[in-house]
Amino acid sequence: MLKDKIRAAMASAVAAIVFIFTSCHSIDDDRIPVHPVNIVFNTIADWNVYGVSGAMDYKYFIREQRKPANFPYTASTYTGFGGILLVSDVMGKPQAYDLSCPVEAENNVRVAIDEEMHARCPKCGSTYDVFSLQGHPLSGRASELGYGLRHYRVGPGRANSAYMVVSF
Questions:
Q1: Helical (H) or strand (E) element with 140
Q2: Buried b (16+ CB within 10 A) or exposed e, 20-54
């Protein structure tokens, strides 16, 4: 099953690369309004429970809905405009995106990972590659307009106080 997911992701990556190199416009990933993002994993144990563990793994972070359940949200935790999609790309590297669809640009219209392992908008149907092409559009209105998902930074924490941090 994992091999099928990786094979599907690689096929979509090749298609997206062809699209990118043959298209005459660039990707606009600034459609979603700038909002604070700060998700801290204080320990390796926190990362093991709430983070992404390997290639093609993903989690949703929506503070207002307390997703994921039992995540240790604090007063300084922020999850962007519509929430955060934390993924581990095909190489196992953590990546983060705003969950809001850039076509709809509403904080309650959120993409979700579908059976083909693409981020899909439930309203406009646009799909995005989050596992190999950093949120670039694959199909739908987003592809026509060149709208990509807003990408956030994921990196090590400050001075051994945190394992990983997602930030704007």
A1: helix 140-145
A2: eeeeeeebebebbeeeebebbbeeeebbeebbbee
- Residue 105 buriedness (CB in 10 A; 0-12 / 13-18 / 19+): middle
| CATH code of the region 2-167 | 2.102.10.10
Closest by Cα among 145, 130, 142, 134 to 25: 145
Please say whether the beta carbons of 85 and 118 come within 8 A.
no
Separation of alpha carbons 113 and 97, rounded Å:
12
- Each residue's pLDDT, cut to its tens digit, for the chain (168 residues) gives 555 655 555 555 555 454 444 444 588 888 998 899 999 998 888 888 999 988 999 999 999 999 999 999 999 999 999 999 999 999 999 999 999 999 999 999 999 999 999 999 999 999 999 999 999 999 999 999 999 999 998 888 776 666 777 776
pTM of the shown model: 0.82
